[in-house]
Amino acid sequence: MKFINLYLLAVTTILFVNCSSKQEVTTLKDAYKNDFYIGTALSADQIEEKNIKVDSLIQKEFNAITAENIMKSMFTHPQKDKYDFALSDKFVAYGEKNKMFIHGHTLIWHSQLAPWMEKIADSTEMKAFMKDHITTIVSKYKGRIKSWDVVNEALNEDGTLRKSVFLNTLGEQYLVDAFKLAEKADPKAELYYNDYNIEEPAKRAGAIALIKKIKEAGGKVDGVGIQGHWRLQSPSLEEIEKSILEYSALGIKVAFTELDITVLPNPWDLKGADVNQNFEGSAKMNPYPKTLPDSVQTQLAARYASIFKLFLKHKDKISRVTFWGVYDKQSWLNDWPIKGRTNYPLPFDVNLEHKPAYDSILKLKKTVE
Ligand code: 9MR
């Protein structure tokens, strides 16, 4: 009798847990699974699964990945006739093994170019480079890398086109060519224009004009990547919302591709235009070398909550939200714009523990259907 009662209790409990429409949400990717991908950027060590703890956090929390550095052209295409896909092969295999959405970063970018690319001086040579580079890389991962940053950071802050080796040799036609070549190499891949500060009005207007021009010239643009290297107080939610609405009105998806929030002072706010090297090592510029005070931790959590609340409001327009790094220890913001500071921009701290920011993002989706 006692055995039967215990058996019935166990069966009822299992049925209750399974049939209940609400389940406790425990990870970012599960919480947001019906809304948009939750991604992270992987370092070379993370792609190579060098740290078991970091690796299990990545697998638990994220369902989309971007390579933080290893797919940039200086690494994948170091010499004119030489490609190196050793690490990008591992990156793609890692994503497939873990059933993650795999994003390619990046095909045409003025920064982190191989030295030989910087020397390309005429249009014939540049056209040949772009054709070979884009076709080789996109075809290699056809059907496996699901979306690409085809062009990265082509704009100045005022919305005009950045003077780069691409613009100098080919004029603005290089933008159209890049998207056409990528589409040809993998017609099903989603093609993005990716940039920072394109939620700011002038640069946003430039990005909208640029995307329109590419589309009008027959290029396929599926989405815009707003990088999202943000601060506690700016950009305003109003500008972010306007951006989501205006970009999606172009008939494209909006992704937040490199999200992080700095909590440290920015020397430019104090000194005008340039980073002043004298700030290096100054306590004023590195105010939290050991821990983040509760008051700032709370501000960071509130900022993340308000941003994700806005993302949820527009989830029908948003394809992916990717954090730029897995945890604070890895963040590029520890070294920029001043080297060697301690920043706290991500939802996981240096010890891989989740921060109040993580809890605030999860709390918005306390339970899922
Ligand atoms: O996070 C990347 C850092 O490790 C590199 O040193 C840096 C080199 O330019 O690039 C960082 O990632 C950038 C990304 O590729 C494009 N948008 C801005 C990111 C932060 O600088």
Structural notes for this entry:
By secondary structure, this protein is an alpha/beta fold. The chain has a single domain, classed as TIM Barrel, CATH 3.20.20.80. 42% of the residues lie in helices and 15% in strands. The strands form 2 sheets. An 8-stranded parallel β-barrel has the order 2-3-4-6-7-8-10-11, surrounded by 4 helices. Strands 1-12 form a two-stranded antiparallel sheet. Helix 11 links the parallel strand 7 (190-195) and strand 8. Helix 8 runs parallel beside helix 10 (173-185) and helix 14 runs parallel beside helix 15 (356-363). The radius of gyration is 22 Å and the shape is globular. It starts with a helix and ends with a strand. The protein binds ligand 9MR. The site of ligand 9MR has 8 residues, from loops.
Tag the structure with descriptive keywords.
single chain, 369 residues, alpha/beta, two-stranded antiparallel sheet, 15% strand
Put the structure in a nutshell.
The protein has 369 residues and is of the alpha/beta class. It has 15 helices and twelve strands. The chain has helices at 2-19, 28-31, 44-47, 52-61, 73-76, 86-97, 115-118, 123-140, 165-170, 173-185, 201-216, 237-248, 267-271, 294-313, 356-363, and strands at residues 23-24, 37-42, 64-67, 101-104, 108-109, 147-152, 190-195, 223-226, 229-231, 253-262, 318-323, 367-368.
